[in-house]
Amino acid sequence: MDATGDEEGSDREASDPARVYGVDFSAAAADAGRKTWIASGRVGRGTELAVTDLRPLTEVAGADSARRSDALPALARWLRERDEGAVVGLDFPFGLPRFVVEETGNESWRSFISRFPDSIGAGGGDGVDDDPVRAFAERCVGLTERHGEGTYDKRRTDAAAGARSPYGFIADTIAFYGMRDVLAPALDEVRFAPMDRTPGGWRTGAPAGPTAVETYPAAVLERLGLHRTNYKGGGDEATTRRRRNAEELPEAADVIYNPEAAVTETMVSNAGGDALDAVAACVGACTAWKRGYEADVDGFPDPDAVALEGYIYG
Question: How much is the pTM?
Answer without folding.
Answer: 0.92
